From TrEMBL:
Keyword Transport carried by entry: yes
Subcellular localization, as worded in the UniProt entry: Cell membrane
InterPro entries according to UniProt: MetI-like, MetI-like_sf
Residues spanning the membrane: 12-33, 53-77, 89-108, 137-160, 181-203, 209-227, 239-259
Name of the molecule in the record: ABC transporter permease
Organism: Candidatus Acutalibacter pullistercoris
């Protein structure tokens, strides 16, 4: 039986080794060596000069995550309360933009936000002044929210649909109003979905480079742009790029560890006790 289990898991183990473990080891190797392969800490020490880029990336990523949560939670809750057939249609509509290429979706927002784009043309047509939106931090956050909000909605919807209706009815029978039912029952029981959604949005948002390059115009440099420049740009330095990537991975792991502290099963059960 054990041999069969090992045989079945072999393809997955090979995949993880080749596409996850080995690349991470290569990143660590380049981060701690110079161009000649000698051990050095110079690359990691040089990362400190880009602290403002790290702070900007974390701030914009956290802002996009917060906006996605504020917008995504009510929508996921509304979908979860619909009839099963309508739920399927709404979930399909949420996933529909994801069927389109990521670059095309971002190009579409460039067309909308440009100074002579559709939004400004519409404002001008009704006599309102044009607004400069492209190549701003707001445009970058908007692109993050649009592209990643499905990753917030779907985990929340999955958790909310699994909440036992009898638990909510029991809380109502005990005298809890709608506000208390949501705060004491629904919200605590949906925290696993909140944690998953926050993680799935924050991680790609903080490391993105296409959105910031296309909607930020290069004036809102993020960590992903910095890494891209070190590997593919004119300032070719894979050792420094690997060091920045390693620091980014550590930051993401720390953020995920902090978020997981809120996902406590005992707290969720306690929240149900009105």
């Amino acid at each position: 039986m054990k041999s069969n289990s090992k045989l079945l898991s072999a393809p997955y183990s090979i995949w993880v080794t080749v596409f996850i473990v080995l690349p991470m080891l290569l990143v660590a190797w380049f981060a701690f060596t110079d161009g000649e392969g000698n051990f050095t800490l110079e690359n990691l020490l040089s990362v400190g000069q880009y602290s403002n880029v790290f702070l900007r990336s974390i701030w914009l990523g956290a802002l996009a995550t917060a906006i996605s949560l504020v917008l995504g939670y009510p929508l996921a809750y509304i979908i979860a309360k619909m009839a099963p057939k309508r739920q399927s249609v709404m979930v399909m509509l949420v996933m529909l933009p994801m069927w389109m290429n990521f670059l095309l979706r971002t190009y579409a927002w460039m067309t909308l936000l440009e100074d002579n784009g559709l939004i400004n043309s519409a404002l001008s047509a009704i006599g309102l002044p044009r607004v400069h939106m492209i190549n701003t931090a707001g445009a970058v956050v908007l692109g993050m929210v649009y592209n990643y909000i499905p990753y917030m909605i779907l985990p929340l919807y999955s958790v909310l649909t699994k909440i036992d209706q009898s638990v909510i009815e029991a809380a109502q029978d005990l005298g809890a109003d709608d506000r208390k039912v949501f705060l004491k029952v629904v919200l605590p029981m949906s925290m696993p979905g909140v944690i998953s959604g926050v993680t799935m949005v924050f991680v790609p948002a903080v490391s993105t480079f296409i959105i910031s390059k296309m909607l930020g115009g290069g004036g809102n440099l993020l960590i992903g742009d910095l890494i891209d420049m070190q590997f593919l740009g004119s300032a070719y330095n894979p050792n420094l790029g690997s060091a920045i990537s390693l620091v980014l991975m550590v930051i993401i792991l720390i953020c995920m560890g902090i978020m997981n502290q809120f996902d406590d099963g005992d707290d969720l059960e306690g929240g149900m006790l009105l």
